[in-house]
Automatic annotation (TrEMBL):
Origin superkingdom: Bacteria
Name under which the protein is recorded: Polar amino acid transport system ATP-binding protein
Domain ABC transporter intervals: 11-256
GO molecular function: ABC-type amino acid transporter activity; ATP binding; ATP hydrolysis activity
Alphabetically ordered keywords of this record: Amino-acid transport, ATP-binding, Cell membrane, Membrane, Nucleotide-binding, Transport
Source organism of the structure: Nocardiopsis composta
Record carries keyword Secreted: no
Length: 260
């Protein structure tokens, strides 16, 4: 059993099966991530990377196996081996440990930047308004947008919106930060600013990070481990200097040749 208290992984995928209709996206995936680790998932489109993040965020349900966070399962098997999903309230509690930033920012368009960041802490965590405000100011300073606290998302560039989305995720003080291709929707000149903010977070916090990205330079800089995915399987994994510098698998070599 994955028991974090006795030194087990923070995140464990155990024989996880995920299907969309007849399409088997993950077929018995095993994956362990330790607290404080920064892990990057790379690989071709459609290989199941985003699905892994969405399963962790409980935006999708598994069809088999088990996912554990902090030694506690998201679902369990009954005596007959049938998968029993956890209750919505249990999953909601689990979800509080996890923050996610999406490709398309997903800010609340009718709320100011301040409100976007304080809404979750105040309404979901019960943090006082003054404390939430102060934290929003600190986070905006960290992402370089102190002067935008009263702006609305439509007044911001894509890169600025994404930096607000990162601040919003961190305002919930998650243990785990999931980043799903967070620069893919940005104009090229805005990508570096967002990646710099993430590099800073990686340097200055011990948050566990799980990133899906096509930015190989970023993956190399921030990751402790890189997983190369292909057709729902881990084709290869290793520290970035090994995976990028001396890949062992043919699939990794052809993928890297195409993207680098
Ligand atoms: P990646 O992130 O590696 O590009 P995804 O996890 O997004 O891959 O997708 C893996 C597979 O699952 C693809 O074949 C995709 O079409 C399918 N898929 C993902 N989400 C859904 C969904 N909501 N409904 C149906 N199929 C989906």
């Amino acid at each position: 059993m994955a028991d974090q208290a006795s030194g087990g992984p923070l995140i464990r995928f155990e024989e996880v099966v995920k299907k969309f209709g007849d399409n088997v996206v993950l077929n018995g995936l095993n994956l362990d991530i330790n607290a404080g680790e920064r892990v990057t998932l790379i690989g071709p489109s459609g290989s199941g990377k985003t699905t892994i993040l969405r399963l962790l965020m409980t935006l999708e349900r598994i069809n088999g196996g088990r996912i554990w966070v902090g030694g506690e399962p998201f679902s369990h098997m009954d005596k007959g081996g049938k998968l029993v999903p956890a209750s919505e309230s249990y999953l909601r509690a689990k979800r509080k440990r996890i923050g996610m930033v999406f490709q398309q920012f997903n800010l609340f368009p009718n709320m100011s930047v301040r409100k976007n960041i304080t809404e979750g802490p105040v309404h979901t965590l019960g943090v006082g308004k003054d404390e939430a405000d102060q934290r929003a100011e600190e986070l905006l300073e960290m992402v370089g947008l102190s002067d935008k606290i009263d702006a609305h998302p439509t007044q911001l560039s894509g890169g600025q919106q994404q930096r607000v989305a990162i601040a919003r995720a961190l305002a919930m003080r998650p243990e785990i930060l999931l980043l799903d291709e967070v620069t893919s929707a940005l104009d090229p000149e805005l990508v570096a600013g967002v990646l710099d903010v993430l590099r800073d977070i990686a340097r200055s916090t011990d948050i566990t990070m799980l990133c899906v990205t096509h930015e190989m330079g970023f993956a190399r800089d921030v990751s402790h481990r890189v997983f190369m995915f292909d057709e729902g399987r881990i084709a290869e994994e290793g520290p970035p200097e090994q995976l990028f510098g001396d890949p062992q698998e043919e699939r990794t070599k052809t993928f890297l040749k195409a993207v680098l």
